[in-house]
User: What shape does this take?
Amino acid sequence: MRTNLLLSTSSRRGAARLSAIWVIAAVVFALLMAVLAFTSQDAASKKDAEVTTAQANESAAKDALDERIRAQRPVSSLLGFTPDALTTISDAEAAKKVLDDAKAAFPDMEGVETFEAAMPRMVTAYRAKLDALGQKDTRISEVQSQYEAERTSRSSAVSEKDSTIDDLQSQLSDITSQKDSEIARLEAANEQLSSQVRNLTEQVTAARDEQRVAERTADRSAKTLATERLKFNIERKDVIARAEKPDGEITAVDSGIELAYINLNASDRLTEGARFRVVSAALGADASKTKGLVEVTNVGPVVSEVRVLDVTDPLGQPLVSGDKLYNPLFEPKAQRDAVLVGTFSGIYNEEELRVLLNEIGINVQDEITNTTNFLITGGPVFVDEDGEALEEPRKVEDLTEFAEAQDKGVVVVPMRDVQQYFRR
Assistant: This one.
């Protein structure tokens, strides 16, 4: 307990000593600050005094400068400085520069060093320049007068020229319009002519091509025609020869009932109603002399039956086995061609005639060719190609087919012969 008391007492003494030191230090610091403040205030007062003195000196210098400027301003104005230059002090360098510029601008200024020496020369030169300008003005006035006179004269000439030009331009416009119209017309005509030339050229070319083709075709046709004509003549001779030869013969005769049998059958394209002229088979008998007439009544596979229509033998001889049969249109084997012309009526109309001819091996053609064997003719023609009635009937002999058949050697068979040799 004692010990704690001693410690507490010792601690309080140490704290008292520390507080005293801090107090002393604060007092010393306050004294130092007071001394420094006093010293700074004294220095600032000295500076303020120096500034005031400098400002006073500057104001005095400025006043002196302004006074000098006011004093030299008339001289500067007289020397010709700009208004801005009047605020500065004129000096020798500026004046010398002005003098040098003046010497450079005026002639005869050699050796001049002052404005006093320069002014008379400048005045003399200026007056000489004015005189020259006056003379030039006079000359200009004279030239202007001459120009005005010439302009007046030229204006009149220009006006006349303009009038002439307008007239010429109007004429040119008319000529140009006429030219354009004529050019357009000529171009159109040229185009039309060119088109016609092209068309004609194409036509000529086509015609030449057609001519060449036609020549080649004609050449081939001529060769073919010659061949066909030769072939036709051979066939024609063959037809004539066959017409002169018998088509068959009688194999048996039944005189009691006027029946006979012939050696022709269905394979020979024999048809019922076909008729044959009978010629005697006797040696030396004339083939043009008809002994009788028979008509097919029944076509058989080997022989066919015929009916004796008439016996016309001049010697009164009856029909016998071996007598020869003739029919100019009958052909048992070969194919033949025929053309029909004229009007067909009566026993056979045209359609029935075509059927009959087809049955006996004759082909009916629409026009005559190199293969045509027969021209079978009917009655007169009463209508034209368009079916219009003719004013007068045309005979078969007047038709072009008849003349063509005769020209080509075609055998002409009248319809009465067909009716004579074929009955139905």
